[in-house]
Write a structure and sequence with these properties.
Blueprint (H helix, E strand, L loop, with lengths): L2 H4 L6 H7 L1 H23 L30 H36 L1 H15 L3 H12 L3 H27 L3 H8 L4 H38 L10 H8 L8 H28 L1 H4 L3
Length: about 280
């Protein structure tokens, strides 16, 4: 039986992902949220427009999600908040993966730098992420860039430890030892032989980082230490509405529901990617 015949009837990675319930439903929800975040604010009301005559109106009277204490449309603010959360989550995932990948490759392959890099990472991991983020934002000011950087720093050590563990395993493989014995340059070995083995676990890790970053951004906004109030985000929308929660629960309910659905969808996609890309799990499926 040839290799082509042996693979007939076996779905590829794309087919496995589509057939995975978590990826399918999580992907649908995530795509819908992304489309609403991109195109929704173009057709809805101004999220910062104040209308005192329509303040604290329930859903359905002066807007799909009602209005807040200043008469602003909650639906429009939630859609704009989706832009902020998705931007923060994506940026944090990309930056932390790129930086963590570089440091993890060096720590795992260059033994002389391993102890130095990992002690720094251990030190960062010993500081609670929320406290480190609040301290950085307090010193540098509350801007979107500052929030992204403040969330990235606690995530980098997790990526470094993941990549380092993969490198420590792969560098003992015979093909890597053969490349070293043949005089192949270190950079070439790392890029050609070791880097490809880190891609699958990094993709999975990136999804979890994205969801975690969106939660942390919302927490910072709720505490008043995140995105400035003039930029609608799910965290500061809920923060502004907590004073009127007993009278107008919709101000907190809808951004909280949007946050929960988005993070849940991202985690579903991450679980599906893990189940598909991890060969140990894939064999049992």
């Amino acid at each position: 039986m040839t290799g082509a015949e042996g693979n007939q009837g076996q779905p590829g990675i794309a087919g496995l992902l589509i057939s995975h319930r978590g990826v399918f439903w999580g992907g649908l929800v995530l795509i819908a949220i992304i489309l609403l975040a991109v195109f929704g604010p173009l057709i809805t009301a101004d999220p910062v427009a104040i209308n005192p005559m329509n303040r604290l109106k329930p859903p359905g009277i002066e807007g799909l999600f009602g209005t807040d204490m200043l008469g602003r449309d909650v639906f429009s603010r939630v859609l704009n908040g989706a832009r902020v959360s998705l931007t923060v989550g994506t940026a944090v995932a990309l930056i932390s993966v790129l930086v963590g990948l570089t440091l993890g490759l060096i720590a795992g392959y260059v033994r002389a730098l391993d102890a130095v890099i990992m002690r720094v990472m251990d030190g960062l991991m010993s500081i609670p992420a929320i406290l480190l983020a609040i301290a950085m934002i307090s010193l540098a000011g509350a801007t979107l860039t500052t929030v992204v950087v403040a969330i990235v720093i606690p995530e980098i050590p997790r990526v470094v430890r993941l990549v380092r563990s993969v490198v420590l395993t792969v560098r003992e493989e015979p093909y890597v030892e053969a490349a070293i014995a043949s005089g192949t340059r270190t950079l070439q070995i790392m890029v050609r032989h070791i880097l490809p083995n880190t891609i699958a676990p990094l993709i999975v890790q990136a999804t979890y980082i994205c969801g975690s970053a969106m939660l942390l951004e919302a927490i910072l906004g709720f505490l008043g230490a995140g995105i400035p109030p003039e930029i609608p985000s799910w965290g500061n929308i809920m923060s502004e509405g907590r004073t009127f929660f007993q009278l107008t629960p919709w101000i907190i309910f809808f951004p909280g529901l949007a946050l929960a659905l988005t993070v849940l969808a991202v985690n579903f996609v991450g679980d599906g990617l893990r189940d598909t890309l991890d060969p140990r799990i894939a064999r049992t499926m």
